[in-house]
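Sample pair:
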Amino acid sequence: MSAVQKIYESIGAEFLLPADEIVKKLKDVKAFIFDWDGVFNKGEKLGSGSSSFTEVDSMGTNMLRFSYYLQNKQTPLTAVISGERNESAFYFAEREHFNSSYFKVLHKKIAIDHFCKKHDLKPHQICYFFDDVLDLDVAREAGLRILVNRKASVLFTHYIKKNGLADYITANESGNFAVREACEMLMGISGTFDEALSRRTDYDAVYQQYIEKRNLPATAFFTLKNGEIINADNKI
């Protein structure tokens, strides 16, 4: 068992797949895709349908992408999927230069299929961060699955384990920096955590090269209409 796995299990995380096996899956990953509600937040909604995120989780996603860059010399593809029209998700995706933001897509697999076709990906090349029932059609196919913990969802979590629908379950619950936990875990087991933090702290030439490339994509927005994904850069 890896030292990193022991650290995370000591705080209550569950490796449904051993860390060394997760590392093998991670080597095939070309995209990190995040559900929004219940992953970056507790799932609480304003009347507008919007919900928040934290800078702590945001930094986690950035450092994970930098870690990927250190290993692969290119930035990973990224996307957010939300079932609502969510201004916070729009802002986050644009600011962090995610490739795509999907909204009002309750059947998440439709968004995943669209993303895969757009970027010539296979489902096993996706690492998916998720938390609830609407994500299970993606969890069946994604190569690497990170389940954000919710202690209240006892039978749901049992179902996930019984049916092999996740590889890692966070110790921290939704709304309590679970994204940051999982991002650091993936960096740790891949052996890039210390280098990534050191280079970011120094803001060295390698990090500057990464951030320049990371900031090149303009986020594309998509939504569902009449059963099909359409371009929605006007976010309506």
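Residues 55-72 form the longest helix (18 residues).
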